[in-house]
Structure formats: C-alpha cells, structure tokens
Amino acid sequence: xxxxxxxxxxxxxxxxxxxxxxxxxxxxxxxxxxxxxxxxxxxxxxxxxxxxxxxxxxxxxxxxxxxxxxxxxxxxxxxxxxxxxxxxxxxxxxxxxxxxxxxxxxxxxxxxxxxxxxxxxxxxxxxxxxxxxxxxxxxxxxxxxxxxxxxxxxxxxxxxxxxxxxxxxxxxxxxxxxxxxxxxxxxxxxxxxxxxxxxxxxxxxxxxxxxxxxxxxxxxxxxxxxxxxxxxxxxxxxxxxxxxxxxxxxxxxxxxxxxxxxxxxxxxxxxxxxxxxxxxxxxxxxxxxxxxxxxxxxxxxxxxxxxxxxxxxxxxxxxxxxxxxxxxxxxxxxxxxxxxxxxxxxxxxxxxxxxxxxxxxxxxxxxxxxxxxxxxxxxxxxxxxxxxxxxxxxxxxxxxxxxxxxxxxxxxxxxxxxxxx
Length: 421
Hints:
Blueprint: H1 2-19, E1 45-46, H2 47-64, H3 67-84, E2 95-96, E3 102-104, E4 107-108, H4 109-126, H5 129-146, E5 159-160, E6 165-168, E7 171-174, E8 190-191, E9 212-213, H6 214-231, H7 234-251, E10 252-253, E11 258-259, E12 262-263, E13 273-275, H8 276-293, H9 296-316, E14 318-319, E15 322-323, E16 326-328, E17 331-333, E18 336-337, H10 338-354, H11 359-376, E19 388-389, H12 408-420
Antiparallel strand pairs: 1-2, 2-3, 4-8, 5-6, 6-7, 9-12, 10-11, 13-16, 14-15, 16-17, 18-19
EC number: 5.1.3.11
InterPro entries: 6-hairpin_glycosidase_sf, 6hp_glycosidase-like_sf, AGE/CE, Cellobiose_2_epim
Protein name: Cellobiose 2-epimerase
C-alpha cells in the first residue's frame, strides 16, 4: 500500500504540479507561489530551486521512463547552463531575476553542490556529455575556490579548553573526550562573485553566523556521491573519504549521539542545536554514499554512527505520527516541517532495510507517510504540500513554492520508496 500510494502521489500530484510551474517565456521555473496559490511570474528564481527541479525530473525519468519527464529535465538543464553559470568567474549564482539575469551574485558552496548533484543525475538520464562537463567544472570550482586552506594560525576567539569543553567568546559547549579545535579543513561556505570569503548569512540560523555547517558538508557529500556514481572518478572518491572523516571526527558528537550543526572555521560548534530532520537525512545519505563508495574500512567506521543517529531520532523525535523539528538548548520546536517528514520516511526505511529486525522503523515510515497524506498534502487544486504544520497540526501559512520549497525532498521520498519497498 505504501509504494502504491506514494507512486500515485508522485505521478498524479507532484509531477503535474511542477510541470505546471514551467516558465516557457523566460526559461526555468516560476519562483514563487503564495499560500493563497497566487503565482508571481516575476519572482526571483533561485538557482538552488532550479537545480533541485533538474534533479527531480532527471530521476523521475530514470524511474518511470516517460519522455515528457526528460523534456522537463532538459528545460531545467538549459536554464542552468544558459543563466545560472557565471561565465567570467565560474560557479553558480545564488539567484536570478525572472528573466534569468543575475539577482544575487553570491557564490555559495551549497549552491555549487546542488548543481553538481543535479547535473550528474541529468547526465545519467540524458547521456548529454555537456552536462557532465559542467558538473566536472563545478567540482573543480568547489575544490579550488571553496575548499578551506588553513594557514596554521589559531582560530580567532576560540580554543580547546583541555577539560572536555570548547570555549568560544560567549559560550561553552561540552564536547566528547579528545575533541579539539581542528585546523580548517572541509569547505568554506559563502563568497563574493569572485570567490572572496564572505559572511555565511544564507546558511546560518538560530542567532549565529557559522563559517561552516553540517548542512553544507552533507550536501557536498551528497553531490560528490552522485558524481562518483556516474563517473567512478578516484579523485572524487578520495574527497568522499575526506568528508566522511570530518563527519566522524568533527561533526558527529558520540557523547550525545547526534551531529552538531553550526561551527566556526575550526569546527568548534557554536550552539546547542539538535536538528532532527538533518540527522535522519544524513543517516541515509551517508549510508548511500558508503554503498556507492564501496570502501569496507569506511563502512565499518561510519555505519555504527548512522545506526545510532537513526535509533536516536526514532526515540527522541518521532512522536504523534511524525517528527518534531529540532531542539535548541533542550527546548523542542514541535513544528512539523514538510521536508523533515519526507526525510524521516526515507531514513526509517533505510534503517529497516539495514536492520530488518527493527520492524518498528518500517512501521514508523508507514505511519509518517499516513501523516503526510492526511495532513501535509494540500488538497486544494493547483497545490502540492504545505510548508509546515503547527503544534495542533494546522497548516502554517507560508508559500507553497519559494527558493527553498521544491520537489527535492518530497519527490525524492517518493522515488526512494518506489525503489526500496
């Protein structure tokens, strides 16, 4: 029943809805549909939105084999190729105006990652060598422009305290034994158009300005996993191993059984934040990366981490047929966010597939899908999912489509269920 209902939702709701957002006059896809279902044809077009739509239609075509899906993917590809790429300085812009001219010229590692992810999938679907060439070019941009280079100096304003904590200018955060302020490895995040480091306001939240985030690292890993899947490039495999080391040594907190979220440049955490959605998403994306990488040593090292993360999310965040959002300083935000529910379905299915004695995970995936079906899907004609629900499970009146609200999470949930069940 789960697979049947999810496939029907994909084919009868999500695919027609997003094809209906196609801008055939200016290219790409319309960037904003209000809660009241009013389409803004002149809204900003986020490059992340376009990349995610490209990924969605490419993978829908790979799953269903219907030519109209490849045509939609091609429409997204041409917009990315012709408008989102900066031909002078390299990389992908943050956003464009409705005609496809640069609106926000910020270069962000997160944005480069989603373009690589989408282009790799589109290459798999279309066999268009140009798509793979662009993906490889963006990979080089990420490695040459976004990767951190440490000059050997101490991190400003922060230091390992030697007592199991890390002290920053305004807080002290307990860390596992042996953790210290690591030199700058991984990827810096935000840059000007010509790749001068800038404040990371786009991926920072909860009152901090993070130089590095778990979120960006996860999606670079996700993108490189897809690039490696379609190319088998050994250099990309080495970068995957580097990121897995960072997850295990810097991002994952074994004492708390969770990932930290926001960091300074030296991987000191900045806030006590438990992001339930990112943790369950990371668990299955890391497992997928391990499967594709096929490195036994890394699987033995990381698989216990993803197993623990999944178990803790099941016991700490799964309640009332759904996942609550996050906990900051121990205070739980009980909003039901659309993408968190989608990732929970996949994450619990993944956990069940790897440990089939844990039938409670399968039951949770089915239960959360039921919650999505009954509460999160917007049944109004011309809509898809609400952005979120409040504590009483009532819709929050946020946009149905915006630069972040796209078919990546819910569409991917459908595709993953169809593969896994």
